[in-house]
TrEMBL record:
Gene source species: Mycena alexandri
Biased composition (Polar residues): 17-27
Lineage: Eukaryota, Fungi, Dikarya, Basidiomycota, Agaricomycotina
UniProt name for this protein: Reverse transcriptase zinc-binding domain-containing protein
Source taxon at top rank: Eukaryota
Disordered, as annotated region: 17-54
Amino acid sequence: MAVILMVLHAGSCTNTVSGPRSQNSINGRLPENHCGPLTGPRHRSPRAHSVSKTLSRKPSSIIAQLRTDASPLNAYRHNIGAIGSPRCEACGAANETRAHYVLECPRWEPYRQPLHVACRKVGLFGSIHLSPILSNPKLLGPLAGFVEATKRFD
Ligand SMILES: [Zn+2]
């Protein structure tokens, strides 16, 4: 808000200086005197690639596994014969698939809010599908946060 006000203020000053009244001074003061310099702090927007650099190794490894559907979730582990049941141990659902873990499991619902907010920011509304979440670079950070918060793979 402060930056916006400064910009508006500077704009009005510029108009005053370049306008027909720029030669007038009130009580000997120059119009430039009330116009502060534009030296406010600027916020740098983070770039997409810097998000993946800040991911810790564990969540990015899990995300890579989720992308290939070879994650340590029970549906996959059951598929390869590592365990006897694909059931979700967190909620008892029949299959702990990627979609179940990321989108559906009620056990992890409290940790999904940041991911939902990030999805809306990139234009994903309503029922969200797994593939854009796993592929959009802007959602990697929030997805990693979700993976970490659930501690499902610890
Ligand atoms: Zn579940």
